[in-house]
Amino acid sequence: MLKSQNNEEEDHSLKPGLEQHYAEESFTDSLSKEEFYSPNEEFEVDSKGVGSSSSPEYAALKEQLLERLKGNPKEPAVIPNSVSEESFPDIESVATHQEVEVQGTSPFELESDYSGQERTASQTYKVDLTFQPKATSDEEFVELESSVPPIPKRAVDSIAQDLKKPVPTPSGQPVSRRSRSQSVEKKPKKVKKSKTKKIVTAIFGTLFLALLGTAVAGYFFIRSSLGPVDSKATDYLQVEIPRGSSVKQIGQTLEKAGLIRNATVFDLYVKFNNHTGFQSGFHNLQKSMDLDTIIDALKKEGTEAPVVPALGKVTIPEGYTLKQIAAAMETNAASTNQEKSPFTADEFMQVVTDESFISEMQAKYPDLLADLPTADTGVLYRLEGYLFPATYEYQSETTVRQLAEQMLAAMDANLRTYYPTIAEKGLTVNQVLTLASLVEKEGSTDEDRQKIASVFFNRIQWGMPLQSNIAVLYAEGKLGEKITLAEDASINTQIDSPYNVYTRLGYMPGPVNSPSLSAIKATIEPAQTDYVYFVADVTTGQVYFARTLEEHEVNVQTYVNSKIESSTTTQ
């Protein structure tokens, strides 16, 4: 509400038509002064001119103001201090007049956005409200009267107040023009940036997941390719590797046979680890073999013709007696769970004690079995000590008889180079194997075994009994069993047996176990000493030698008797 010069209150608020324009932001229609102000409203001018709401000069100036505000809402609307005649032909000039500053939010700067956010706007509108009518001569110029009372600047103030009013949204709730200005300038940019960021994040996230998935899949693929195709497979497959085959060709052959999963992985793995030396020929392989096991197998010499693959293995440890060998025949040494072989201990003992089999083997291996002890010598088992300790493979059609023959053939092959030396020394194969079976159990190192063999030869040469507990334990049937050192020291040295080397001179009827090649060599080539006694420390295994009985008794007391109270040993 504004007051006129007569102090009467007048309503200068916006009419409903203008409020509708504000609400819809439609400022394209021409707005006459009547839509803003009452017809009888008066305005203040300075002392140089006269203006009123009814004067045509003021109406033209007001229309100029409104058109400028509507036409360029992005910049402050300024009526210049100099107005051309083209704009106002009835106005000669416009003097320097007052400037009116309007603070608030301009509705002309707002765009269609009802987000409700606010933005502060401040504009300064320079409005020339005074002017001079155009005069044709000095006489026609009308001087302003200084007595004209000032009138409030209600025109611009009223507009400024209206600009500060909130604009209603379609829902009926008012939204300030400040908030709408904020949402127009800020949110679209924020939304655009947010959308771009989301797109970039989604792209990189997808790429990362794809790369990660590829890496994980590749890792498990390579890992599975290095492992066995079928870890439970037991059957052997025969694979031929032609001479001159490349690594790539070998991989293709293995993949075709179903032994590996991927030939390319095989090729890369072999080259990366610098594996070389693959052998041509026929190879027996299993699907339960991993890549490293297959590579190792292919480095072994292949056969010129297909060979029936092994079904299992039998291992004969060094120093085993014939009975122990029979028990070992029942176990498949190729298995990890001690699975049984197709053989039995009784079946094995029947074969190796069969005279027809022994005769057949004597004819087949005369150098080895020429002086085999006869049954009337008191020998316990004629073939005791003649079966070479090693690991033997068997196939599905292998028999116990064939395995026993393989063991005899292996002993013959290992001794073949020593037959001339044995003959030159005036020894027999049976004598060598007999002493070697004692050396096997009495010593553990090659040096000790050569010295122990020299003691036995010195005793035989000087007419002294061998006096080895190993022979007596064999006679008692305890060799290979776990016994205490006290039991070992208290053996029955008076037992009536051809193996009692305490009471009998010379050699025993035959070996008491299957000696190793190391013990055999030590016996054939013993050390040159004058020792006739030896004893081993029961805790360390170190052997002490002596030339006299007195030295020997001191060693026995020091290294045996003082330590035999609770110790155990296996002979």
UniProtKB/TrEMBL annotation:
Residues 1-56, 70-121, 162-190 are annotated as: Disordered. Keywords: Cell membrane, Cell wall biogenesis/degradation, Lyase, Membrane, Transmembrane, Transmembrane helix. The keyword Cell membrane applies. Its main location: membrane. The keyword Lyase applies. HAMAP family: MltG. Functions as a peptidoglycan terminase that cleaves nascent peptidoglycan strands endolytically to terminate their elongation. This is Endolytic murein transglycosylase. It comes from Streptococcus ovuberis. The gene is mltG.
